Amino acid sequence: MSIYNSAAIEEFNGGVWVFCEQRQGKMMPTSFELISEGRKLADELGSKLYGILLGHNIEGIAKELGGYGADGVYVCDHPLLENYTTDGYTKVICDTIHEYKPEVLLIGATNIGRDLGPRCAARLHTGLCADCTHLDIDVPKYKEFLRSASTLAPEVINAIKEDDRNLKMTRPAFGGHLMATIICPRFRPAMATVRPGVMKKNAFDQAKADACEIIKPHFSLTEADMKTQVTEVVKAAKKLVDLIGADVVVSVGRGISKDVNRGIQLAEELAEVLGGVVGGSRATIDSGWLSADHQVGQTGKTVHPKIYIALGISGAIQHKAGMQDSECIIAVNKNDTAPIFEIADYGICGDLFKVTPMLIEAIKAAKAAK
Amino acid sequence: MKIIVCVKQVPDTSGKVAVNPDGTLNRASMATITNPDDLNAVEAALVLKEQTGAEVIVISMGPPPAEGMLREIMARGADRAVLVSGREFGGSDTYATSQILAAAINKIGVEKEDIVMCGRQAIDGDTAQVGPQIAEKLGLPQVSYAAEIKKDGDTLTIKRVLEDGYMTVKVKTPCLITCIKELNEPRYMSVGGVFECHSKPYEVFDYNTLKDDPLIDPSTIGLKGSPTNIFKSFTPPQKGVGMMLEGADKATCEKLAGILAAKHLI
């Protein structure tokens, strides 16, 4: 079927790669997160870390990746790569992988990354794990992770053999009810798309950025390779909510149904006092009360703000999957058996329409007193 | 013109999810539904059928009881159904699944004016990988995250959604499209459709049906042909129960604000 087989695995010694996504010449924030995570993996493997950057007139933004840990960046510049197309990007990435043989390829799990990743993995005949939230090479570190993030018995964890050098890719499945760690033992590169907002960004180091090597691989790309044509790229007119970068998220759920406008208004006021943004459960998005960019949860965004306030959210597992790692969770719900209280640091059992205005005043007063 | 729609029967993860002691999903105890995004793909196909008279063929890989789901989709208006089913296919990851589904679609045949449609992703695995991987195996161009589809002759103009807006993509048939819920509102089964669905053509493709396709090889299908393996699966721990504050009045809110201030969170 494929030229890649288990015998050829050792040939893939070209380091850890990160596909660094840019849109309109601006680097996507997830590229910096993945470079930071990739640095950790490359160090564990004892190999180098490279970004691969595709686009047109984008060389100027490449070196910044070095500041987060990249040893070098493969820059593929071509007019036909200006906008993302499945065909153009897949061809250039697969041809470059063919040439330089990385052992790992990480891709941000954006709407573009999740189009590109599977197409590349199918062409390369290798495995791809979707939407990962945790990555390891070293087994001792993986065991440490399991001890805090799983309910596995200590003897099960201790029994894991320590010589495994595969990339261990962990992701939620079944709406967050289960976690699975996936490996790709027989093929390379091991590929993962990684959920934006999950991996922590390293501190930027200008000296490392200056030292970052720029490599320009040879590739061929012609109009004939392009089976789709992008006729326009439109930015949303309304500024989208930056849930992932927010320190405070105030989310609303089905509990606002009694008076949707008032509920959203209260959440906005509370968010404003705290310098945060408004999110919502799947119910609020499915009902059309909030636009999809507000959605927190397994099918929405994963957030870990300093403060997460859930107003009228019952806490379905698919919602919890997107916010349970928040530093401090506050829940307001009329139903004292709502599952959200199981993970809340502080719970108030009451009517959000009555509690929220009082909370806004109390926080204003507490801030003024500081 | 044919429109081939790939659908999957999935456990309903929006309700109670049962997990076995060994950390695997207790599928037997859970209700099954048609994957939600796949119903948007079915609806998109039915709309194109109304505009063009295309034949809509629905295809699924799964165990024999998935026939019920396929009959229901024929009751919504699909013309015929194919179930891809066989022990040899079990344990397939997305790579192996796409090999098998691509072989089954080859068997049905993809001609110049045909379209393959999928839902964006299934709610059990949430991978969004099988659609693009089928496209690669069939050598078709793909457009994923479709929120609007317009057809003019052999050219489709598709609104492809991005996190921060959208792009408009033109593609010629044959091609593969993955559909999101913003695309449409799936119709219900019609009364007439429910009567007709049992007499519409229904076929099962097993290993023997597909084995002559070069995509079907023991090294590329099933558990053994899957590039990815499960290393461990586990359930996440419940976070420790926090503090329920007493009351829901002004004093309660002041207490909470005081805690947040003391912890330097505000």
Describe this structure in words.
The complex is a heterodimer of chains A (370) and B (266). Chain A has 370 residues and is an alpha/beta fold. Chain A folds into 2 domains: 220 residues, HUPs (Rossmann fold); 122 residues, 3-Layer(aba) Sandwich (Rossmann fold), CATH 3.40.50.1220. Helices cover 30% and strands 23% of the residues of chain A. Chain A contains 11 helices and 18 strands. In chain A, helix 2 crosses helix 3 and helix 7 runs parallel beside helix 11. Chain A is globular, with a radius of gyration of 22 Å. Chain B is an alpha/beta fold and 266 residues long. Chain B has a single domain, classed as Rossmann fold (3-Layer(aba) Sandwich). Chain B contains 8 helices and 13 strands. In chain B, the strands form 2 sheets. In chain B, strands 9-8-7-10-6-1-4-5-11 form a 9-stranded mixed β-sheet, sandwiched between helices. Chain B has a two-stranded antiparallel sheet with strand order 2-3. In chain B, helix 3 packs across helix 4. The N and C termini of chain B lie far apart (62 Å). The model of chain B has no long low-confidence stretch (mean pLDDT 93). The chains are: A alpha/beta (370), B alpha/beta (266). Chains A and B meet through helix 2, helix 3, strand 7, strand 9 and strand 10 of A and helix 3, helix 4, strand 7, strand 8 and strand 9 of B. Strand 18 of chain A pairs parallel with strand 13 of chain B, so a sheet runs across the interface.
